[in-house]
Amino acid sequence: xxxxxxxxxxxxxxxxxxxxxxxxxxxxxxxxxxxxxxxxxxxxxxxxxxxxxxxxxxxxxxxxxxxxxxxxxxxxxxxxxxxxxxxxxxxxxxxxxxxxxxxxxxxxxxxxxxxxxxxxxxxxxxxxxxxxxxxxxxxxxxxxxxxxxxxxxxxxxxxxxxxxxxxxxxxxxxxxxxxxxxxxxxxxxxxxxx
Length: 194
Fold this sequence. Notes:
alpha+beta, Aminopeptidase, 8-stranded mixed sheet, 6 helices, GNAT_dom, transferase
């Protein structure tokens, strides 16, 4: 449990050599904005325009989040984060993830997720990791299911999109009991660093 509390200090770096997750720094924000394609934030920001403040500065300052930049062979590829970190419940969410189009469909997302999941279950002692996505975001649903996450259900009218329409949210999870079999299906990583 104490490992979960340490995570909020924002000092965790995860790597397998080619794929690296390091804490998001304020200095990364201009490069992320330049990298993001027009549709990257389509499903991430609900009800609030995707500004630098909302997208990157809020997670940097939130006590229950830890944002990472994703690097592939040293090149900035996107960002992701742990959020809704709940030490008492031993749970967290992985979300706010996006990759620049040139890194999509390369297998990078699965490897980055494996690093995050390994750290959550093996270092932090998390018992449940959840993923949430807009019901219209079929690409994300396919990617989450491909990780081995179990679809738990749909939260109806959970949020509102930028255009004012109600969003139904699909919820998935992986538990610590499922982690060994999920881990065996994901791309191998050589090391998880702290």
